């Protein structure tokens, strides 16, 4: 019989706590800390859910860890906002002389890569790479894209 009283007490206590928690304002503000806990991608990806390609289409401005500082990409590790005609130069060890932005669409970017051999190659999509550089498009808005570059080891 004492076990039933303990179980009953726990059920009543849980119901009371649940009732109190749902009537107070903090749950309305709890989603804000969850979305702001992610560093740079959250402002560009939290406004609107990603499309089927995984690329966000935010309501607010695009946000990238390195902003529009294309020189931050020299070592192959950066996250920048790109638009057509932007050009990023890389260190020789990455085996890509530069990457130029040809176009930005709703679900991909088209890039031209110049290789040390003088060869040029075109890469397109929401993710890809060439020689020593990989990229991922995380958000697109108004003809601009947030693109994360990483060196291929």
Query: So how many helices?
Result: 4
N to C succession of SSEs:
HHHHEEEEEEEE
Rg estimate, integer Å: 23 Å
Give the terminus-to-terminus CA distance. Answer: 66 Å
Strand content: 25-35%
Low-confidence sequence ranges: 1-50
Shape: globular
Tell how many strands the DSSP assignment holds.
8
Description:
It is a single chain. This protein has 153 residues and is an alpha+beta fold. It has four helices and eight strands, in the order ααααββββββββ. The strands form two sheets. It has a four-stranded antiparallel β-sheet with strand order 1-8-7-6. Strands 2-3-4-5 form a four-stranded antiparallel β-sheet, with no helix packed on it. β7 and β8 form a beta hairpin. The longest helix has 22 residues, at 2-23.
Short description:
With 153 residues, the chain is of the alpha+beta class. It has helices spanning 2-23, 26-29, 31-36, 41-46; strands at residues 78-82, 87-89, 98-104, 109-114, 120-125, 127-130, 133-141, 144-151.
